[in-house]
TrEMBL record:
<feature type="transmembrane region" description="Helical">
    <location>
        <begin position="5"/>
        <end position="23"/>
    </location>
</feature>
<feature type="domain" description="Glycine transporter">
    <location>
        <begin position="91"/>
        <end position="164"/>
    </location>
</feature>
<feature type="transmembrane region" description="Helical">
    <location>
        <begin position="143"/>
        <end position="163"/>
    </location>
</feature>
<keyword id="KW-0472">Membrane</keyword>
<feature type="transmembrane region" description="Helical">
    <location>
        <begin position="112"/>
        <end position="131"/>
    </location>
</feature>
<feature type="transmembrane region" description="Helical">
    <location>
        <begin position="87"/>
        <end position="105"/>
    </location>
</feature>
<keyword id="KW-1133">Transmembrane helix</keyword>
<dbReference type="InterPro" id="IPR005115">
    <property type="entry name" value="Gly_transporter"/>
</dbReference>
<keyword id="KW-1003">Cell membrane</keyword>
<feature type="transmembrane region" description="Helical">
    <location>
        <begin position="62"/>
        <end position="81"/>
    </location>
</feature>
<feature type="domain" description="Glycine transporter">
    <location>
        <begin position="5"/>
        <end position="77"/>
    </location>
</feature>
<dbReference type="Pfam" id="PF03458">
    <property type="entry name" value="Gly_transporter"/>
</dbReference>
<keyword id="KW-0812">Transmembrane</keyword>
<comment type="similarity">
    <text>Belongs to the UPF0126 family.</text>
</comment>
<feature type="transmembrane region" description="Helical">
    <location>
        <begin position="29"/>
        <end position="50"/>
    </location>
</feature>
<feature type="transmembrane region" description="Helical">
    <location>
        <begin position="172"/>
        <end position="193"/>
    </location>
</feature>
<protein>
    <submittedName>
        <fullName>Membrane protein</fullName>
    </submittedName>
</protein>
Length: 203
């Protein structure tokens, strides 16, 4: 149930982020809905394909699509009457990243995969939808920008796995993993935190 709730909430907040980006890009209603859906289910779809989980999660359970429709509609109504919050997109994206990364890691963990694959599946589930959203809206994907993004997802999943290894209650492990990702992502946005850059030695 916890995994299912994480997935549904992650779908909702990523759908919100997709609509906000579509609004900033001047897309129409259909474009906003398409971008919301791509953001919300893109990472999970790629994860299910790679893990050979069929039917794909949103095909098996249409409630995911219903959540996308409701979250998108409510966001569209909001932006029609009020200006989008200045940092609203980044907050929604950070929360979606955190929830999807941990839920993706749990799915890979339940499949009995190695810890490295669990980390990779978690990070990919959290970042792939946002990458597709940014590419389709002609933006440089956040994962390729200077501040922490995929690194935050990896750190949160590792924290979750360490707590699981220490026999911590699953709810606590999930909460800490989500908190680590959310905190790192928001601190990266506020303070401009990033990994060290590569420097080439001049010949």
């Amino acid at each position: 149930m916890l995994l299912y709730l994480l997935d549904l909430i992650g779908v909702a907040v990523f759908a919100v982020s997709g609509v906000l980006i579509a609004a900033h890009a001047g897309m129409d209603l259909l474009g906003g809905l398409a971008l919301a859906a791509l953001t919300a289910i893109g990472g999970g779809t790629l994860r299910d394909v790679l893990l050979n989980r069929h039917p794909i999660f949103w095909v098996r359970d249409a409630r995911y699509l219903l959540v996308i429709l409701v979250a998108s509609a409510l966001t569209m109504v909001y932006v029609a009457f009020f200006p989008p919050p200045g940092q609203g997109f980044l907050i929604a994206d950070a929360l979606g990243l955190a929830l999807f990364a941990i839920s993706g890691a749990q799915i890979a963990e339940a499949a009995g995969l190695s810890w490295l694959i669990v980390v990779l599946m978690g990070a990919m589930t959290g970042t792939a939808g946002g990458m597709l959203r940014d590419v389709m809206s002609a933006r440089v994907p956040l994962i390729f920008q200077q501040d922490l993004y995929a690194t935050a997802a990896i750190a949160g999943v590792v924290a979750y796995l360490v707590l699981q290894k220490l026999k911590a209650p699953r709810g606590i492990a999930v909460s800490v993993g989500v908190a680590v990702i959310l905190l790192m992502r928001l601190l990266a946005v506020v303070w401009g935190m990033h990994l060290p850059r590569l420097h080439l030695i001049a010949a």
